[in-house]
Write the structure tokens for this entry.
Amino acid sequence: MALAGCSSDGSADGKVTITLTGPNQFTADTDSFGPAWDKLVAAFEKENPDIILKTNVLPIASWNQASTTQLSAGTATELIFNQTTHKPNQVHSLNEYLEKPNPYIPGNEKWIDAFNDQYFGGDQQLGVNAEGNYEWVPFNLVGIAIYYNEDILKEVGVDPAQLSTFSGFVQSCKTLKSAGYAPLATDNGNLTQGWEMDALASTMFDDVVTDLNQFDNAGNPGTASPIAPKSVAKGVLTGDLDLTTAPQVADSFTLLKELNDACATPNWSGVSGSGAFTGGTDFQAGKAAMAWGTNFASTNLGDSDFSYGTITFPTVEKSDSQYASGEGAQFGVSTGGTSYMIPSYIKGEKLDAAVKFLQFVSSPHVQSWLDETGSIPAIDGLETPPGLDAFTDGRWASAPPQGQNGAFVELPAALAGKNPYEGYLLGSTSLKDALATAQKNNLTWAKEQVKDAGWTEDWTK
């Protein structure tokens, strides 16, 4: 999607107009982020009568390519989704702003202090880039879970308790498929299998992380939890992390294929994502028994004619893999929800206006939007909306030590947003070749990290 640039400074009728561009994380609507978002924008404009904020929705399947292209061309809008592939010098550092008061929070002395430091900021400087800069702030926090249709499970005789172990989950999928239902709604995006690999790996890689963990989040000697990208990059470049020889990686790929073969929507590679649940609209339509979804997705079920519940990813037991810890999977509540950054070429009044919006959405003004969108607050003092306790409680809500990058399968910039497991899961690529490709991609990714961050230690050479 080509967008007209909105980056030049200026105003109309005494007002500054800025535009926020990104994918719709809340509904399948291709024109709007929804009524709750519109109300939030209206509240911001009322509080700031000299600013007009427009919203531009990008297609869920192609937003990253469009946003990355626009950023490189200097035509991206004033606020862009923070998962846009970019280099640190392409976006503004927010450090100086975060050290000053947020004008929308009474009594606040430093904007950074308003955030829950378990997820953003704090002593570990969570959220900084390789250069030690904050590029974005979280509007909310996000968790994921597997939603299930209670009516379908009851009809086919599957007790939700059977879904608590990996083997029980796979067998239940086979039962559901025999009854004519898509067991677990799956599409051709990178989320379904990416989340599944994150969950699988969270039970199998503790020892690997311990061996690799050598830098803190600012890139200094130390450790980080989850592990910092610099530690992973060093492991890749020194050969301490080789996906072709690490047995945990091969086991993770094998388990992912077993799960996908039994549970995924038939012909999933031809299903486009919808932005609410994985697998398009099959779950909402009652055609699929289960689907992955964020806490945001719950707002799409208000008018459903079936009862639903949520579960975490099933426990991988030692009988499934000798490398499994036998403990419950982890994913973690994180800042991977709604976050935006400002291109570095945005200046003057437009820069000021964009910063004001970021401050506004990290203040008590955002509570009603959180409630209406099923969002978890990123700042202290606000409340989690009712019904989302399952997303934030227990081991599942804690971040795994390897972070949300699965079995250390990284992607270089040219492949960002792609599904690295697709060929293997479809049977067109052998396990050996899939691991070799993943290792090649890891090497390219690690070299990009070194170049972008300017690391100069001996191992980088």
Observations:
- The CA atoms of residues 42 and 53 lie 9 Å apart.
- The chain has a mean pLDDT of 92.
